[in-house]
TrEMBL record:
The organism's taxonomic lineage, starting at the top: Bacteria, Pseudomonadati, Pseudomonadota, Gammaproteobacteria, Pseudomonadales
Record protein name field: Alpha-L-glutamate ligase-like protein
Gene Ontology MF terms: ATP binding; metal ion binding; ribosomal S6-glutamic acid ligase activity
Stretches assigned to the ATP-grasp domain: 46-297
GO cellular component, one term: cytoplasm
């Protein structure tokens, strides 16, 4: 017991944030319960983002009742690829990604051929709340299928990699690239076996990776290096993440984004209780960074000043960047 306590005190000294501190000092302190539906429901998040002019994957339609399942053909139209997901799902469960059509059927992103009836059954399961938080009745969202930028081709398996940036009061504090693997079934979900790779806030250059709680430098399926990869349009990602504070009003959030090969950075969803594995991927604790932001907020409050999203990004990059940005 003493050994555990000694180890934990050493981790705390490095600024490692535990789940109790996250919940008490950040989630409860900065996130009003009344605002949770904005981030817990992907449809509400998407509608708010569209109103704010923030780029998201295009929404094709919503199915709210069993009777509305009959509208599926109309919603899909002539499209050969699309995504169906539960509005209140978590961890990637219940998401169906259709990549193509084949002989009157559909081909999923993993290559499985399924029928129209199987898609309808999946939507029915979503509506019953099978995948929703708390098991409540849910809605099905049909939207544009993101096509990952070619930069990820050598370091990802099948699915869509995403970028998570943790944001405190509009200030980005830590970032991670999540890469699907065969183990994760092509999903960018760390608990299911995806890789988490730290990202330098100043430059968008990837750092080391973590996979199944092990430190790695290569993707287990492609065997290519996951570190030292320059993510395109990094400032665009940072500004998108910072602007999500105004979008939802929650002070402590995880902003999940993707890089589409044609549409660029897109907001995928927001999370009011972001996980803590991002610290392993960055070899850095969250607490030291969140304390620096809180100190900044106190200074600005005393001076009667507030910062724009661009100014908040600049502060974060100067304070938390591992590698100095290249001038010019």
């Amino acid at each position: 017991m003493f050994g555990f306590w000694k180890t934990w005190k050493a981790l705390e000294a490095r600024g490692i944030m535990g789940i109790n501190r996250r919940n008490a000092d950040y989630v409860l302190k900065y996130n009003k319960r009344s605002l949770y539906p904005i981030v817990d429901d992907k449809i509400i998040t998407k509608e708010r983002a569209i109103q704010a002019g923030i780029h998201v994957p295009q929404m094709y339609g919503i199915i709210s009742t069993e009777k509305e399942i009959d509208k599926l053909d109309e919603i899909i139209g002539g499209r050969s690829d699309f995504v169906i997901k539960p509005a209140q799902g978590a961890g990637g469960d219940g998401i169906l990604v259709i990549a193509d059509r084949f002989e009157g059927r559909y081909r999923t992103v993993s290559g499985k051929i399924i029928s129209h009836e199987e898609i309808e059954h999946q939507i029915s399961s979503i509506l019953t709340g099978l995948y929703s938080l708390g098991g409540h009745r849910d809605r099905a969202l049909i939207e544009y299928r993101v096509v990952p930028d070619q930069i990820f081709k050598s370091i990802s398996y099948e699915g869509v990699p995403d970028i998570r940036i943790i944001v405190l009061m509009g200030y980005p504090v830590m970032a991670m690239l999540r890469l699907p693997t065969r183990q994760s079934g092509g999903k960018a979900n760390l608990h299911q076996g995806a890789i988490g790779v730290g990202v330098d806030l100043a430059t968008g250059l990837t750092l080391r990776g973590t996979w199944l709680n092990n430190i790695i430098t290569k993707h287990p399926d492609t065997t290519n290096a996951v570190d030292g990869v320059q993510l395109p349009n990094w400032d665009g990602f940072m500004k998108l993440a910072a602007g999500c504070y105004e979008l939802c009003g929650l002070g402590y959030i995880g902003v999940d984004m993707v890089l589409d090969q044609e549409k660029g950075p897109l907001i995928l969803e927001l999370n009011a209780r972001p996980g803590l594995n991002i610290q392993i991927a960055n070899d850095c604790g969250l607490t030291l960074r969140t304390h620096a932001v809180e100190a900044r907020l106190e200074e600005l409050k005393a001076a009667g000043v507030t910062e724009t999203a661009e100014e908040r990004v600049k502060f974060a990059q100067q304070m938390f960047g591992h590698i100095p940005p290249v001038e010019g």
